């Protein structure tokens, strides 16, 4: 009994140390948001300003259409996440559990799309999207963001690990492929779908280059492009930038806190088997 | 291969057709963001739009760091740029060579042309024609911490040697003596030209047939950089901000001196540091020599291929000659030198303030406009600088290598200069 | 219809939506991009056909060769470190206990911060008179040039990448670990297996699909390192952190040689496909036998 406790104590010490290292940059971001300019790059560093400037947080909302950008980003990220989770689990199911000729080849084609550097396709993709008349619309932000081999690949790897027995029992009972997909595969995919939802949301939340290229009007901007507009050639109001970045980070963390419990719900075969 | 090219071409055609259809009724105007400066432009754009409901200006602000190198490049590369945009002198040549710039010759009256400061006129003139309107003049100087200078009994350095000696005295464990730009960017080159020129050096000869960079002057300027960064370690090789065009490193006391432009005055006034500050001209190489600064500043240009080119020119002329924009831009929203004599005269009160006198009386008269080289030439120069700062390459070798690269490039270059 | 036939049909139908999307928004632009690599093009005006000269140019371009070296060096450090650290974190916080939600969230948080602000913090920590050197001085180590040094800058970029990606891959491993049925562990516990025995005989083999995924993805991320370089070092000092994808981006958008940049990107693509195919063969696509 005593041994277990010591182990637990060590585990907590290790976890806390790592947490401190991980938190420090975030703390620094936060504290920079409340520093006057004269303290920002001071050496030796100022750990807590004598006169904290709290106004930067409010300024972000006053000076820029911050709320509008948050809405745009949440909308785009949300739509992409929902649609992509659905189409990707279909593709992944096809690439892992259904047997047909050319499946492995298609898998390789799909993941090879991950290997194309974005900067290489940026200009051609822009030409294409413009020919659809999508520049400066939500379409340009949403539609090209849906097909993404990352999600297909992750789900496929997950489905590979599902024991065959689960499906076979259902097939014996005469379940159709659709039935198996909706009744068996999707329900036990909760942990990975939760992980993927977090990833998609995060990736789109922090997306920068593509929204920068296709959106011109202020009212359609995504949050990261909007924040990047802070400052200018000669001055970087670091306090405002850090305050904006700090607040822009929160929605993703909230989604994570909400979904993280699904990440760790173990599947038990016994419940499904009989 | 042919099929693919055709595909690209047809996509391009579709794009041109759609763009014409979309562009017919508005003038798009692109510029990098200036959180505190842009409201002024917005104000004048709104004013124009009320006067011209049938030909509105659509003003688009683009994050500074991605303006030139990502957004503008991608837009033109995919076949459609904005109708009006701001371009830096270094970039102007590229757009000129590609036939994108609309000449302003026939739209400007002799009085208007005469109103340009000579250095501003030189900046917008390519092959004898005027392309676009200059927005501001931006000379460089060295800002210094007066309190520290008093404390160590230092006087304003009169040559490079004194500058280095002062920097050595001012450098401590927690402070750098002199902040120069170490980042591998075009801005680093911009801040290097005053040293190159003050030593009497140049990059290329008058008719662009041969590089003149392999010279004792260029080697001296490169040696100064190597001494500051590497030998005496009085300049930081990395800075905790995007570039030294941001004065906040100096304000924080990170460095005792910093090379920066006249735009810093505004920031130093609005967010004053905890110490007294001043600035002095970048000293000449040796005592009694000439100090030559570089004169930057953006240019508002019009896209020649725009379907509303005439209106775009009209708006540009209106903004600079019919409104108070230039004066407000230079004296209220920013602290800049105007490109126009009349604006300078009308803002005499502002420029009579003591803080402007060194810029106006000492730096401006000997400044040269920011040169416009091609990206290939800039790259060669940037490599020379980076290699003496970081790779311990001898300045003589670096100058020679850069000169060779530039010569190689010039041997096949057919564009303007 | 027979079940087998139905499976073939369903296979293609299920794949169709994404396949169409990928074809239009990735494959087609990639082909157009490859086409650009056969031309000299400044991004403005006419394209001049150049055959494969953009490809041969790479062999004699010292900056490209340097960038290739930097990229490979980085991949060799990033892939294994990222794998080990994120798996360790996942194992550390897998078991529910008091306050575990807090730790999970903290470990994931760096992945949620925009790179611009981490870069801001990073350049403050790793400048010559920053925190990192203060910590070194406690151990009696003299100040290092860090970001201002050609020898050390890449490690700082690596630290930045790891900081923002470990928590991300930790989540993937967490999901993968939970994919392993609890019964296997129960059986091992009955047999009196130690923690390490359980890890090597149950966890690790059954984690193969996840591991394959993490390896491939981190390999791709490693080879395509761009964002961290873009925000932190701009490829400097003197190309010490210039990766191929970053150099290609600069070549296109700063030096305006779009054809040459496309050629570099395409070469990177080929290298990645070959490496991934090798991994695929070795790990059999990560399928558990």
Key attributes of the depicted protein:
heterotrimer, A: MetI-like fold, 0% strand, C: 289 residues, mainly alpha, MetI-like fold, two-stranded antiparallel sheet
Q: Ends of chain B: how far apart? A: 36 Å
CATH class placement of chain C: Mainly Alpha
Rg calc of chain B: 22 Å
CATH topology of chain C: MetI-like fold
What is shown here, in short?
The complex is a heterotrimer of chains A (274), B (417) and C (289). Chain B is of the alpha/beta class. Chain B has helices at 2-23, 38-51, 64-77, 89-97, 110-115, 118-124, 146-151, 160-170, 186-198, 216-231, 248-251, 264-270, 309-322, 325-333, 341-346, 348-351, 357-363, 375-390, 395-410; strands spanning 26-32, 56-62, 84-87, 125-126, 129-130, 133-134, 138-145, 176-179, 255-261, 277-280, 294-296, 299-302, 368-369.
Could you characterize what this model shows?
The complex is a heterotrimer of chains A (274), B (417) and C (289). By secondary structure, chain A is mainly alpha-helical. Chain A folds into two domains: 1-53, no CATH class; 64-273, MetI-like fold (Orthogonal Bundle). Chain A has 15 helices and no strands. Chain A has helices at residues 2-33, 37-40, 55-63, 66-96, 103-112, 118-131, 138-142, 149-160, 164-172, 177-188, 190-205, 209-214, 223-228, 238-263, 269-273. Chain A starts with a helix and ends with a helix. By secondary structure, chain B is an alpha/beta fold. Chain B folds into two domains: 2-137 and 297-369, D-Maltodextrin-Binding Protein, domain 2; 138-295 and 373-410, D-Maltodextrin-Binding Protein, domain 2 (3-Layer(aba) Sandwich), CATH 3.40.190.10. In chain B, strands 7, 8, 9, 10, 11 and 13 form a six-stranded mixed sheet that branches. A five-stranded mixed sheet of chain B has the order 2-1-3-12-6, sandwiched between helices. A two-stranded antiparallel ribbon of chain B has the order 4-5. In chain B, strand 4 (125-126) and strand 5 (129-130) form a beta hairpin. In chain B, helix 9 packs across helix 10 (216-231), helix 10 crosses helix 18 and helix 10 crosses helix 19. Chain B is globular. Chain C has 289 residues and is mainly alpha-helical. The chains are: A mainly alpha (274), B alpha/beta (417), C mainly alpha (289).
